[in-house]
Amino acid sequence: MTAISPVKAVSSADMAIMIQGGNDTSPAKARTKSGNLNSFASEMEFIRYALDSAAIVAMTDVRGTITFVNSKFCEISGYAHEELIGNNHRMLHSGIHDTTFFRRMYRTIAGGRVWHGEICNRRKDGSNYWVDTTIVPHINAAGKVDSYTAIRFDITARHEAEAMLRQIVSVDSLTGIPNRRRFQEHLENVVDLSSHDPGQVHLALLDIDTFKEINDTFGHDVGDNLLKVVSERLRKLVKPSVFVARLGGDEFGIVMTGMADEEALAFMGEVLASLREPVKLGSAATRRCTASIGVSSFPKDAGSPDALFKAADMALYRSKALGRDQVQAFVPRLREIAERRSELLHAVETGLDKGQFQLYYQPLVPTNARHPVSLEGLLRWSHPEQGLITPGAFLTDMNDPGLLAAIGLFVVERAFLDMQAMIAKGLPVGRVAINVTNADFRSDAFIDRFFDLSRKIGIAPDRFCIEVTEGVFLDRDYQHLEGHLSRLHEAGVEIALDDFGTGFASLTHLRRMPIDRIKIDRSFISNITANAGDMAIVRGVVDIAHSMGKVVTAEGIETRDQAELLRDLGCDYLQGWYFAKARNPEHLPYVFEHMPRLPGDASNLLQSVAS
Length: 611
Description:
Layout: E1 2-4, H1 12-20, H2 27-34, H3 39-54, E2 56-61, E3 66-69, H4 71-77, H5 81-84, H6 99-110, E4 114-122, E5 128-139, E6 145-154, H7 156-170, H8 180-196, E7 201-208, H9 211-218, H10 220-236, E8 242-248, E9 251-257, H11 261-275, E10 278-281, E11 285-288, E12 291-298, H12 305-321, E13 326-329, H13 335-353, E14 357-366, E15 373-383, E16 387-389, H14 401-425, E17 429-435, H15 445-457, E18 464-469, H16 478-490, E19 494-500, H17 507-512, E20 517-520, H18 532-547, E21 551-554, H19 560-568, E22 573-574, H20 588-594, H21 605-610
Helix pairs in contact: 1-3, 2-3, 7-18, 9-10, 13-14, 14-15
């Protein structure tokens, strides 16, 4: 909201000509009058016509009584002309703005200054609408304000789009409870309040036991349903002192305020008892599910939200190590956890030295067959004992920035070498995408190595895409991250925001960061053919992304129906097992040749791309 210094106002007669100059607002009428009226009146008539055609206009006296409205005002408010004239403008108040908001506005205009801001009003049918509003006070010959003219423009669609995105980034799409981003905000708020008004804050982290086994045995649909059941049971336990959120996967967070240690642990006992109730899995199987919980306390165990989270995480690992289905409170020395993580770090370092890591590639299929198929390089570890394992099995628990940076350097080097081999074989690949983490941007090493490889191998930067997850925006050195991404972007590298909608990203990030592509997370895709809400969210994301000039990829496509629907919704690229699983580079020619084609694409993908 802004206030503009007073300017010389037009006279009442001029305003009457401008706003109320006749019932016929057609250009033909304005041109007819131009031959009879003086030039000033003609100019005022044209301005009045232009305003009446484009803007929502109203006039009130100093008490707020409506004295004039144009047709657009009637259209957007739902009120007839005679219902508005003579009534106070308060009849349109929506209740969204408080008394302070209106006091500041009236203080500005009563002082003869122009006010500008956004206002939410209420229609006759009870629905709300938003308008970008400029209120101009009319100052009479005596130097006093005697009326106000408000010029408005409808911005309801923009507010609805922003509200949809706020919903996406604050609520978990699968379960309907708060997501990790909202959880982080709440935890920071209660810890801050507790710092000023001493009192305990307890943080509990909860993992569903054997969730991976259930997912693998019964399928992702059953796993998703289990997450919904757990979320609903946790939701029923929510009260003013308890906040619940899904943090990702099968991990949930619970914040408790105003409880002693014994009370918090007793409440966690209620949580476990609720989750042990039988759950129906699939069409016939019924199982009793359990959970492991770790609890930490502020300020006893940690002095910040981040430290509190780490303490609860260590307690969670202890709960799992001691047999699961239990609650463990944080203790200062959790050597079992430290040793396990140390062993993992050593194994990864050994794997890098011995060449046990490689990239597998999954296609990103364009919905427009004239565009080339791109690939995403996905890290795989050929473990000597466990076989081929995905990053989720070893990167999730890794908190060593140096080792993560070493993995990042391996990934970029491997991607360039694999791309070189693909080009030599004549494989028609558009771009190769690689995933990066916060650790890759802690120094200039990753970026410098990328451009060094581009020069030495002779592959242009615009043949690559860098995928970042929403978690990178939590990095404290935001400007450093923005600088690195901008450097890549300016060289032609595509920047993609992966797993969009699962936690942290916002409209601010999309505007500020050089993001070229948005990848809609699979959680929005899995039920899209049966869930109207998921379809509406995806449609909204596609429309907003396209309006911002960004490309949209949908992840996790497993069926032909999903692929066709997402194509019809306007997604630019599709990715998932329906087209192909991630394969090593040697198998890519076979993948390209046998990849399913979308209806309407009668040409072979290889041929269409090559041509």
